[in-house]
Amino acid sequence: MSVPLHYVVKTRLVEVVEGLGEGAALPPERVLAKEFGVSRWTMRQAIRELIADGRLRARQGQGTFVATPKLVQPLALVSYTEALRAQGHTPAREVVEFDELPADAVLADRLGIAEGEPVHRLERVLFADGQPIGLETTYLAVERFPTLKAVLDPTGSLYRCLTDQLGVRFGEGEELVETVIATPREAELLKATQSLPMLLLHRTSRDTAGRPIEAVRSLYRGDRVGFRATLRP
């Protein structure tokens, strides 16, 4: 089976990227195409794939640069803040929405409440070292957490607030990971193009008694974030 030319070029281009080092500018597309003996279209395809892989980053009006290594997040019931700080990064959050809405049938089932009951919705852009990497929306039943708005700093750690101030003890969670394309609104919030692959996580967390705590939808930039899980037999 023949290998597409742009894939061959991409493989060779990885060696160039590794030789340049983090943050270095990639030579212009036309220069690389001439050096590799391929068309600019083929070179453009190879560069686009390396951008999608997180190896390169395009800056509008400036060029293409070698990207910093991806952040690797654990698939575990841990605080986003603590996970990033443990890797030497500075976490931050920007609140988009913090309101209440009636639960639809799917959300009600995940939270163990009746359809139409009110839920807190907290939507935030997640940052690492000042760069947006994810968009997280968390839903919690108002009946279970009536004082949430009064005690939570929405720019801080929700996990820490639930455990330290509201006495919640996380027991287990279920997480589904899939790849998606962002909506125009999501792409704008994450300062990304709609063509950039995204990783979408759906998580339902439960306490030590098996009672649902939260339902979470997290959208991450595929060029900035990867995930790691520990598997045991």
From TrEMBL:
Transmembrane segments: none annotated. Residues 1-69 form the HTH gntR-type domain. One of its GO terms (molecular function) is DNA binding. GO terms for biological process: negative regulation of DNA-templated transcription. CDD domains: WHTH_GntR (cd07377). It comes from the Bacteria. SUPFAM superfamilies: Chorismate lyase-like, Winged helix' DNA-binding domain. Keywords: DNA-binding, Transcription, Transcription regulation. This is GntR family transcriptional regulator. It comes from Kribbella pratensis.
